[in-house]
């Protein structure tokens, strides 16, 4: 399906990129959110468009749209899921920080500070429910097929169970996507920053490519360089 003039062209390829942190409402004025700025996903979309792809950016971020990119605004994980699953893409890059949980109930009216007249100083508890795992659903829906190429992102910190790469390798195998971009997070790393350090892991391949600290456009370029060989075999 590659019709481009050069090896790194994405002409004729429809790419879906998700970006930003989803916002899970509690009431009309409040939401549960996360620190994702959307910058990395926007850079991925921008580089793909520059290389000639048709790019749909499904975004819960309010960053300005990159040149030549169609932006579909979403807020919640459920909205993001609906929009992603509606598109028959060649490549899906899940750069969004999709909330794992959402409030079980959304109040139609603002939750007041004194919400229980019998106990005016009480604080409410928030019950959460799991959101669907969109990337896992894309992998499952693809089955034995190789299209769409599926790229996951993972923000990892090392912990007692292992370092960033150990967690990333386990996540790639668990998720079953083709490529996993593992970000090192914590201590002011990555979130909202213009530079990041990432490891590119390919499913079934032991070799890891590490990029950075580098601008997010450099990371995006490395991502597409790794994806293009997979797109060419579609
Ligand atoms: N993702 C998704 N749907 C979710 C959660 C995550 O599609 N409900 C995607 C993200 O967009 C990302 C990848 O899955 O591309 C990995 O997200 P991550 O939060 O690192 O993985 P989880 O399986 O949620 O594991 P963790 O417990 O570390 O949060
Ligand atoms: Ca998660």
UniProtKB/TrEMBL annotation:
GO terms for biological process: coenzyme A biosynthetic process; pantothenate catabolic process. Its EC number is 4.1.1.36, 6.3.2.5. One of its GO terms (molecular function) is phosphopantothenate--cysteine ligase activity. CTP binds at residues 100, 110, 132-135, 153, 171, 175. Its cofactor is Mg(2+); FMN. Keywords: Decarboxylase, Flavoprotein, FMN, Ligase, Lyase, Magnesium, Metal-binding, Multifunctional enzyme. Pathway: Cofactor biosynthesis; coenzyme A biosynthesis; CoA from (R)-pantothenate: step 2/5; Cofactor biosynthesis; coenzyme A biosynthesis; CoA from (R)-pantothenate: step 3/5. Catalyzes two sequential steps in the biosynthesis of coenzyme A. In the first step cysteine is conjugated to 4'-phosphopantothenate to form 4-phosphopantothenoylcysteine. In the second step the latter compound is decarboxylated to form 4'-phosphopantotheine. Catalyzes two steps in the biosynthesis of coenzyme A. In the first step cysteine is conjugated to 4'-phosphopantothenate to form 4-phosphopantothenoylcysteine, in the latter compound is decarboxylated to form 4'-phosphopantotheine. This is Coenzyme A biosynthesis bifunctional protein CoaBC. It comes from Luteipulveratus mongoliensis. The gene is coaBC. The chain holds residues 172 to 405 of 405 of the full protein.
